[in-house]
């Protein structure tokens, strides 16, 4: 037993002094010590227990030590923590043994010969006061999270839920095996594991995932050596499933070691296609290779690569790029309890590194295109993932990326499990809610293109005033198809005078960041009316289909007109009564502009329109996906009039 405490002390010491990860050092120390499994389990428990409760233990110890803890030798402090942890948390260790063992360790490892006496005095004091200790002042101390981190969690989740998260951070993480379904069915793998004496339970919501218990060392299991499974948290596999890898795809895993995401993708792809698993550290290649070999996944190749540096031959080449970037790791405190004590300042630089990797590897994703029949082939997917719960490394990085890269869009996904909000394209998994690692991922789809309008100047790659030859050359250079799949180009006296483009789900049309075909038409009109007068083709400017902004030289057109006031008009009522789906059609086509034009003044003059009021007061721009659901309150108002089914509640029947 003494041996176990000694290994724990040395591991804690190494962790404090060298910043060595607790599990890495501990595993090596346990292997080298050759101790039996019972002692190894105690050493592990002690090491993790002290790290999980360090702040709380120090809170109690500081009240008992006449010297401030920061003035103690580092190993003496660890002896105190080890003793205090056993006294306060381990029922099966008698207090007297806990004190004596720590005193012996201090005698052996402290430089100051009086340290053993101090350890003895402080720990005996703790034993005496054990039943009357003051309560911890707050949850940060109670669950030993640094104050800055506890504050972050409280800001995000509120006090109560942050407390649940911090409690979950100190719980024992389950061992989750993902079945290599190319080698064995989940049932067969479970049976093999049970035959080997391992406890096996199917994961409650992730298919082909087994929760293991009593595994001992995995390497000794024949089923492991034969590659029937690999160990991975459900959240990490979920991220890969959300990205939608399919057989035959070409995948780049940009930050791949030790290879978990590549393995998950390869299994989902049934080992058909290609996965290039890259990492910046040459020595980590072997880890990925060994895993792929054990699992028999020969579609995985490895390469040493810095995700921040552009590799020309990769540009536009991959169906799926996975950027599981280096991060603060604050979602995996359950597995690496010491990670919470990282100094926060160096972590502040991480978003820059993450953005640099994302910016670079985004270029490797295949853009959307049109086939020879003019049908859209969607662009590839960029999966951004971290194992942290800090917004500045997660949502903030993704949002800033989207601001810089309008040719990417968040794409909703469907995954198994109790998750809400997957339609936003971003998901956070939480230890206390989902019993997973704290994990974040975003699914980004590369679009065919994103074009800016430049009022009075041009649109996308075209400039007003270009000659016909120049415009044609631009089309050739960029491989642009003819209208209506791409730009309408109209000329006056051989010069480009009017440039138009249809709304298209695979193209973004932007004016100073505002999406002209995906933002509510009223909001687009309001925004542009701030910069120009407005004329339109209806006396009621809320009901026009063509809007012209003379000072900007921009024209917007929608195929249908929809406004709630139309619901009271008899002809509209007839339309809906004839077919309830008509309402959804009118709304989805009437809420968004279908064509955007940039034109010269002389062109505009040919189409005089009614001068319109600019009734819109602006307000926040409402971005909504095209074909969004009908607001239930609107439907509730109109449904009884026309004998339609009333809505099922918020987000109810979207067809209505
Ligand atoms: C979160 S880990 C990846 C885990 C891995 N995807 C998995 O599922 O097993 C991040 C990895 O990124 C690597 N890395 C760090 N900076 C990098 C860079 N600039 N380019 C490529 N890889 C990098 C690290 O070596 C580390 O292995």
From TrEMBL:
Belongs to the class I-like SAM-binding methyltransferase superfamily. RsmB/NOP family. Pfam families: Methyltr_RsmB-F (PF01189), NusB (PF01029), RsmF-B_ferredox (PF22458). Residues 614-656 are annotated as: Disordered. This is 16S rRNA (cytosine(967)-C(5))-methyltransferase. NCBIfam families: PRK14902.1 (NF011494), rsmB (TIGR00563). Its EC number is 2.1.1.176. It is found in: Cytoplasm. One of its GO terms (biological process) is regulation of DNA-templated transcription. Residues 165-447 form the SAM-dependent MTase RsmB/NOP-type domain. The lineage of its organism: Bacteria, Bacillati, Bacillota, Clostridia, Eubacteriales. Specifically methylates the cytosine at position 967 (m5C967) of 16S rRNA. It comes from Lawsonibacter hominis. GO terms for molecular function: RNA binding; rRNA methyltransferase activity. S-adenosyl-L-methionine binds at residues 255-261, 279, 306, 324. Its main location: cytoplasm. The active site is at residue 387.
């Amino acid at each position: 037993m003494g041996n176990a405490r000694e290994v724990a002390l040395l591991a804690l010491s190494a962790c404090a002094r060298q910043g060595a990860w607790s599990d890495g050092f501990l595993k090596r120390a346990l292997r080298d010590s050759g101790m039996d499994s019972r002692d190894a389990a105690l050493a592990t428990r002690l090491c993790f227990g002290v790290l999980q409760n360090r702040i709380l233990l120090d809170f109690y110890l500081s009240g008992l030590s006449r010297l401030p803890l920061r003035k103690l030798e580092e190993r003496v402090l660890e002896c105190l923590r080890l003793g205090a942890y056993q006294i306060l948390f381990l029922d099966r260790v008698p207090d007297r043994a806990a004190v004596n063992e720590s005193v012996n360790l201090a005698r052996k490892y402290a430089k100051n010969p009086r340290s053993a006496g101090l350890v003895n005095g402080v720990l005996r004091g703790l034993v005496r006061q054990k039943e009357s200790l003051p309560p911890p002042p707050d949850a940060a101390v109670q669950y030993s999270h640094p104050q800055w981190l506890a504050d972050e969690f409280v800001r995000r989740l509120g006090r109560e839920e942050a407390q649940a998260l911090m409690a979950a951070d100190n719980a024992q993480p389950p061992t989750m095996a993902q079945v290599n379904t190319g080698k064995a069915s989940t049932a067969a793998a479970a049976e093999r594991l049970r035959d080997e004496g391992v406890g096996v339970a199917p994961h409650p919501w992730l298919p082909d995932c087994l929760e293991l218990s009593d595994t001992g060392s995995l390497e000794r299991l024949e089923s492991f050596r034969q590659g029937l499974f690999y160990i991975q948290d459900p959240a990490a596999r979920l991220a890969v499933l959300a990205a939608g890898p399919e057989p035959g795809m070409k995948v780049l895993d940009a930050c791949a070691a030790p290879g978990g995401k590549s393995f998950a993708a390869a299994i989902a792809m049934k080992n058909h296609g290609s996965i290039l698993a890259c990492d910046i550290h040459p020595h980590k290649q072997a880890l990925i290779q060994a895993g792929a070999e054990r699992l028999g996944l020969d579609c995985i190749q490895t390469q040493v690569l810095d995700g921040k540096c552009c590799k020309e031959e990769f540009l536009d080449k991959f169906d799926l790029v996975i950027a599981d970037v280096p991060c603060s790791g604050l979602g995996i405190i359950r597995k690496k309890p010491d990670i919470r004590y990282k100094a926060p300042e160096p972590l502040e630089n991480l978003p820059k590194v993450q953005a640099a990797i994302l910016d670079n590897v985004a270029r490797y994703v295949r853009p959307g295109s049109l086939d020879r029949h003019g049908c859209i082939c969607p662009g590839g997917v960029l999966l951004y993932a971290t194992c942290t719960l800090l917004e500045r490394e997660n949502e903030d990085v993704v949002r800033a990326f989207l601001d810089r890269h309008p040719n990417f869009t968040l794409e909703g996904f469907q995954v198994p499990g109790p998750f809400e909000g997957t339609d936003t394209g971003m998901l956070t998994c939480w230890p206390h809610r989902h019993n997973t690692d704290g994990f974040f991922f975003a699914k980004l789809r590369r679009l065919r293109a994103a074009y800016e309008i430049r009022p009075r100047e041009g649109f996308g790659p075209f400039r007003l005033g270009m000659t016909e030859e120049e415009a044609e050359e631009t089309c050739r250079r960029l491989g642009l198809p003819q209208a209506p799949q791409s730009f309408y180009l109209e000329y006056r006296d051989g010069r480009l005078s009017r440039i138009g483009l249809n709304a298209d789900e695979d193209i973004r049309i932007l004016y100073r960041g505002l999406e002209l075909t995906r933002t509510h038409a009223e909001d687009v009109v309001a925004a542009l009316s701030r910069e120009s007068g407005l004329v339109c083709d209806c006396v009621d400017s809320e009901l026009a289909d063509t809007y012209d902004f003379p000072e900007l030289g921009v024209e917007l057109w929608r195929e249908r007109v929809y406004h709630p006031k139309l619901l009271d008009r008899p002809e509209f009522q007839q339309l809906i009564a004839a077919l309830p789906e008509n309402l959804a059609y009118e709304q989805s086509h009437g809420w968004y502009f279908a064509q955007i034009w940039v034109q010269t003044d002389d062109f505009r003059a040919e189409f005089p329109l009614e001068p319109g009021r600019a009734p819109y007061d602006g307000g926040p721009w409402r971005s909504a996906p095209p074909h969004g659901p009908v607001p239930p309150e609107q439907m509730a108002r109109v449904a009884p009039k026309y004998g339609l089914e009333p809505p099922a509640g918020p987000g109810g029947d979207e067809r209505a």
